[in-house]
Amino acid sequence: MTQTEEKLLRRAIELAAEARTGGNPPFGSLLAAPDGTILAEERNSSLTDRDITAHPELKLARWAARELEPEVAATTTMYTSCQPCGMCAGAIARSGLGRVVYALSGDQLNGLKPPGTGFTDAPSEGPALYDEARVPVEGYYT
């Protein structure tokens, strides 16, 4: 990791501290151009916004998909205080960002939480009704 990358990752950690000070979960992220220029910054605001999706990684992925041309987005790097959750990872993949650099892994984060405070997956069933469900999808991706 270069000194510039370390500096950007430390800024993401600062944003996480700012989120916590503001009454939100302690997560922060930024999006940088190849030369290290910060294009956008975000903090978690899920509690103050009363929006469970207000993660900084998701907000930046949405911003990039809306504001950057795909070839520009592909050259960017997201620096984030923690490994993106599944929701955010999906948005990052769809936004076309070039790469992600994170400080804490998901396992490290879970190790910092008291036992029993994590999220559990909702029960799910499927697949079902394939012949009906495929009709609106067939041909869309061609």
From TrEMBL:
Start and end residues of each CMP/dCMP-type deaminase domain: 3-137
Highest taxon, organism lineage: Bacteria
GO molecular function: catalytic activity
Record protein name field: tRNA(Arg) A34 adenosine deaminase TadA
Organism: Nonomuraea solani
